[in-house]
Design a protein that fits this description.
This is DNA-binding response regulator. Keywords: DNA-binding, Phosphoprotein. The protein is α/β, with parallel strands linked by helices. It is built from ten helices and seven strands. The protein has a seven-stranded mixed β-sheet, with helices on both faces. Helix 1 links the parallel strand 1 and strand 2. Helix 2 runs parallel beside helix 3 and helix 4 packs across helix 6. It starts with 6 loop residues before the first strand and ends with a helix.
């Protein structure tokens, strides 16, 4: 295999063990070389400018500059890089923000190494990919009616994606689109017209303030999870109801407890009941 056929990758994750594991697994895959790693978004941008990787695998939630902001900056400082989100969070708020920032894929970290390597090669070829769970959440957001009777307020129909192939129709003909995606991945053949620019922590459509008028410091998705916890649903039941993975549900519950200063699910249920969320 010639050097021109090798795809160079930068791996970005704030958890050292995960970062090094992904880098090691990818490094032994044919046709892929890992040129560097970074622990946060700011370091990722600087290394992308320096190393000029073909593909950047970017975590979403990191201290300092998060993955979404880093992808947006990469569009200006390293526009040749293809940014693919590789994360444990599969709800539509993160997917929408990542697409708006310019990401050309959204995958979950539970991919087998071979499928991740195939995803990297497809990303380098310009193929936009979604993990099926993330695609299901995005589809649910697109079809959820708003109070005005249209798409979800501030949701994916607000504006087109900032970069990458068009999402409104079939992909253009060409060899890079001629084959099927690797198992477990869903290419974006026809998807959102575009996402909202509201950040995950802003008091916009993705915040609890826009979901039932509560004043909780939670996102709309976290409020949904809190309601289901308060109703006695298990993590598996919540995952099935919201089209999330159980790992994502656990992450949401941990953040809810931390943000509200609660110890356990019982306290969360009482908190939700006292605030009229049931």
């Amino acid at each position: 295999m010639s050097g021109d056929d090798v795809v160079s990758v930068l791996v970005v994750d704030d958890q050292g063990l995960i970062r090094e594991s992904i880098a090691s697994l990818l490094g032994i895959q044919p046709g892929i070389t890992v040129v560097g790693t970074a622990a946060d978004g700011r370091e990722a941008v600087e290394k992308a400018v320096e190393l000029e990787p073909d593909v950047v695998l970017m975590d979403v939630r990191m201290p300092g500059m998060d993955g979404v902001r880093a992808v947006a900056e990469l569009r200006h400082r390293a526009p040749a890089c293809r940014a693919v989100m590789l994360t444990t969070f599969d709800d539509e708020e993160y997917v929408v923000q990542a697409l708006h920032a310019g990401a050309t894929g959204y995958l979950l970290k539970d991919l087998p190494a071979r499928e991740l390597a195939a995803a990297v090669r497809l990303a380098h070829a310009g193929v936009v990919q979604f993990d099926p769970a993330a695609a299901a959440r995005l589809a649910a957001a697109l079809t959820r009616p708003s109070a005005a009777g249209g798409p979800a307020a501030g949701g994916p129909a607000a504006r087109p994606p900032a970069r990458g192939p068009e999402f409104s129709g079939p992909p253009p003909a060409g060899p890079e689109f001629s084959g099927p995606p690797p198992a477990g991945l869903a290419p974006a053949g026809s998807g959102p017209a575009g996402p909202s620019s509201a950040g995950a922590g802003s008091a916009g459509p993705g915040s609890a303030a826009a979901d039932g008028g509560t004043d909780l410091a939670l996102t709309a998705r976290e409020v949904e999870v809190l309601r289901l916890v308060a109703r006695g649903s298990t993590n598996r039941e919540i995952a099935g109801h919201l089209y999330l993975s159980e790992g994502t549900v656990k992450n949401h519950i941990s953040r809810i407890l931390g943000r509200l200063g609660l110890r356990d699910r019982t306290q969360a249920a009482i908190y939700a009941r006292d605030r009229g969320l049931l």
